[in-house]
Amino acid sequence: MASGVYLPTMEDILDSTELALVWDAEDHQVALYNSTRAASADYNSDTSYSSTNEIVGTGYTAGGAVVEGTAFTRPGGGVMRFSSNAISWEGSTLSDVAHLDFYAAAVSGDPLMFGISISPVNTSDGTLLVTPHSNGLVTFDFTP
Fold first, then answer.
1. pLDDT digits (tens, 9 = 90+) for 116-139
2. Cα distances (angstroms) measured from residue 1 to each of 4, 20, 81, 100, 113
3. Which CB contacts under 8 angstroms, 24+ apart, belong to 16-23?
4. Per-residue pLDDT tens for 33-59?
């Protein structure tokens, strides 16, 4: 299990293709996956949202949830941070939720942004709540 930034998308942002991905857009999505995806996420070659190994269950819609309250900030010290409001799936019955993929749903090809692997969790007519850390969902440290 690992978490990370999908390098092909970052490369497309920075190379001559200049992928128009706005990090703090309010239309990104987060999809939930099982432990098979958590073990197989390849941050060097995975490029776009896929339904393979995506969670199926009550209270969850394929493609995931819209990520709201996004913020891409520079708190100082060569660090950039991406965060959002908490994300929840209320009244859900889900099994083996072990990975979250964040992707730019409004950008052609649904490019993956980053993934977070977690210890597997289940819900039974409950709420799955993802609350970002005070340091954000993902942090980039550009300090040499």
1. 999 999 999 999 999 999 999 999
2. 10, 29, 22, 12, 17
3. 19/107, 19/111, 20/107, 21/104, 21/107, 21/111, 21/113, 23/70, 23/72, 23/82, 23/113
4. 999 999 999 999 999 999 999 999 999
Pairing of strands 79-83, 29-33: unpaired
Output DSSP code: residue 42: -
DSSP state of 70: -
3-class DSSP assignment, residue 14: helix
If DSSP codes are grouped into helix, strand and coil, which group holds residue 13?
helix
Q: Which amino acid is at 113?
A: M
CA–CA separation, 93 vs 58, rounded Å? 5
| 15: Cβ contacts below 8 Å, ≥ 6 apart | none
